């Protein structure tokens, strides 16, 4: 962790005077469930990228591909898995409620600490 | 050219606000609001000010709007009273900690319950540790002068704290008195233009107000607030000095009245100090050496200066218009703080507290005289018989 500053060295009132610095705040440690991406199923629709509240979906813009998750910032909310149309299709075809880590899903939510 | 007008305390404050012409006023328009906001709304409607007047649905929203406008870089004022202040509670602290130089007219009235709308100081004493600078005013003139000075104190770059300017509910807020109103241009020149250093409307330099601030930095921001309060001690006197040179009225941390050669004194704020001056004159005419000290600045508390002004006395009575329930002997807040100050600075004078006037109960000259007579006896015996007296309560 960076050296913490004294009260004379920081802006008053908790002001943050630089923009775009949320990237420095690593929130990945908050996660209880980790999203895992099934490359084979993905249709690269970018619904997860659109809905992710933390800009944690990494994309290859040039080739228009979803490439994975920024796990330093992803808090594991699971919105990506909820909005994934492939997940929806898999669940519908299965005809039953699937566990969040079912291997058939495109975006699976795996409990932190557990293997994929 | 200044001119004398017959104004209520509320009108005097509204007049100061008109002359200051703040960028934003956010206030709740209904009870327990004072007439100040009604008068000011007329100035807005008549185009006498260019202020954006935000009429909100509660005092919590009023102070929230003030904080937002202040963060945007506006010069912001508001007015409230009693339970209105209580409803602002959460945001009162936020205004101070986000370092928003908001100026509030606070007409001191009793907190419910039972429901009461009349004068006492239970409202302001609740905010004494909130980080606001608190000024007291004896009459409409002082409220007017304090509001003008408050803008400069609040916005000083070394301070950047909100300021509450108090006066007594109904006793001075609704009573008409002679007030010297200075020339509009002179007041505007005195308050100057507010140049905020960190405006969120400065889109070329984006910044964040009010982010999460945990155990790693919150404490450092509180330490900064302490520093700002310490700077305020100096700035309040600098502003008072400049005000005196411009408008010819001398304000300090407190006012003393026939105190220098007195044996006993009463310490009391706001309008009751005016009544007490008459009592002092009457007793002086009888050859009794009595004096008065009227605190103007309650936050930051001028502990050392008060001690120096009182150290020659043989007995001191504090008159408190509120009770700090459950505190030492259920005394009043002013007494508790002053006794601590005297003790810390090694001054051991017999001292007693007189709680009075709760919920607007009248305080009569004869009652203040009885306090002085008690203290003259204490000065002789050197012994305080009753630490806290609830003056004129019916047994």
Task: Please explain how this structure is put together.
- The complex is a heterodimer of chains A (116) and B (395).
- Chain A has helices at residues 47-51, 79-83, 85-94; strands at residues 33-37, 57-60, 65-69, 107-111.
- Chain A has 116 residues and is of the alpha+beta class.
- Chain A has a single domain (27-111), classed as 2-Layer Sandwich (Alpha-Beta Plaits), CATH 3.30.70.20.
- A two-stranded antiparallel sheet of chain A has the order 1-4. In chain A, strands 2-3 form a two-stranded antiparallel sheet.
- Chain A is elongated and about 60 Å long.
- The mean pLDDT of chain A is 93.
- Chain B is an alpha/beta fold and 395 residues long.
- Chain B has two domains: 3-247, Rossmann fold; 254-390, Rossmann fold, CATH 3.40.50.
- Chain B has twelve helices and 15 strands.
- In chain B, the strands form three sheets. Chain B has a seven-stranded mixed sheet, sandwiched between helices.
- In chain B, helix 6 (140-155) links the parallel strand 6 and strand 7.
- In chain B, helix 1 (9-20) packs parallel to helix 2 (35-45), helix 6 (140-155) crosses helix 8 (218-247) and helix 9 packs across helix 12 (365-381).
- In chain B, 50% of the residues are buried.
- The model of chain B has no long low-confidence stretch (mean pLDDT 97).
- Classes of the chains: A alpha+beta (116), B alpha/beta (395).
- Chain A binds chain B through residues 4-7, 10-19, and chain B through 97-99, 160, 198, 205-211, 213, 216-218, 220-221, 223-224, 227-228.
């Amino acid at each position: 962790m960076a050296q913490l500053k004294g009260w004379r060295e920081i802006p008053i009132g908790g002001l943050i005077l630089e923009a775009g610095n949320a990237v420095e705040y690593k929130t990945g440690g908050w996660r209880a469930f980790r999203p895992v991406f099934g490359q084979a199923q993905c249709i690269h629709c970018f619904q997860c990228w659109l809905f992710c509240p933390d800009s944690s979906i990494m994309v290859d813009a040039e080739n228009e591909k979803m490439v994975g998750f920024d796990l330093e910032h992803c808090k594991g909310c699971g919105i990506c898995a909820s909005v994934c149309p492939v997940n929806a299709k898999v669940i519908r075809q299965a005809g039953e409620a699937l566990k969040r880590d079912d291997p058939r899903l495109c975006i699976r939510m795996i409990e932190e600490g557990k293997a994929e | 050219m200044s001119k004398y007008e017959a104004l209520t305390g509320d009108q005097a404050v509204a007049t100061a606000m008109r002359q200051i012409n703040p960028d934003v006023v956010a206030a709740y328009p209904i009870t327990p609001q004072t007439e100040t906001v009604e008068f000011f709304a007329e100035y807005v409607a008549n185009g006498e000010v260019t202020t954006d007047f935000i009429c909100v649905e509660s005092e919590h929203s009023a102070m929230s709007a003030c904080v937002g406008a202040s963060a945007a870089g506006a010069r912001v004022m508001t007015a409230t009273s009693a339970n209105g202040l209580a409803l602002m509670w959460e945001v009162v602290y936020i205004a101070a900690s986000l370092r928003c130089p908001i100026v509030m007219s606070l007409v001191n009235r009793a907190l419910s319950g039972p429901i009461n709308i009349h004068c006492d100081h239970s409202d302001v004493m609740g905010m004494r540790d909130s980080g606001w600078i608190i000024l007291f005013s004896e009459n409409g003139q002082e409220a007017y002068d304090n509001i003008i000075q408050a803008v400069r104190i609040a916005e000083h770059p070394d301070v950047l704290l909100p300021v509450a300017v108090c006066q007594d509910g109904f006793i001075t807020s609704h009573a008409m008195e002679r007030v010297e109103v200075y020339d509009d241009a002179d007041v505007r020149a005195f308050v100057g233009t507010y140049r905020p250093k960190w405006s969120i409307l400065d889109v070329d330099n984006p910044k964040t107000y009010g982010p999460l601030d945990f155990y790693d930095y919150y404490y450092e921001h509180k330490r900064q607030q302490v520093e700002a309060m310490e700077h305020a001690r100096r700035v309040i006197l600098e502003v008072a000095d400049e005000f005196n040179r411009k408008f010819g009225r001398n304000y300090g941390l407190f006012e003393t009245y026939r105190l220098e050669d007195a044996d006993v004194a009463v310490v009391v704020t706001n309008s009751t100090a005016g009544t007490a001056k008459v009592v002092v004159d009457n007793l002086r005419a009888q050859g009794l050496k009595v004096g008065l000290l009227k605190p103007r600045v309650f936050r930051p508390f001028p502990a050392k200066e008060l001690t120096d002004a009182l150290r020659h006395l043989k007995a001191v009575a504090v008159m408190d218009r509120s009770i700090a329930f459950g505190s030492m002997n259920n005394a009043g807040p002013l007494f508790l703080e002053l006794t601590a100050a005297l003790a810390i600075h090694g001054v051991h004078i017999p001292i007693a507290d007189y709680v009075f006037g709760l919920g607007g109960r009248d305080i009569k000259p004869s009652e203040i005289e009885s306090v002085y007579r008690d203290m003259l006896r204490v000065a002789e015996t050197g012994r305080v018989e009753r630490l806290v007296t609830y003056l004129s309560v019916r047994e």
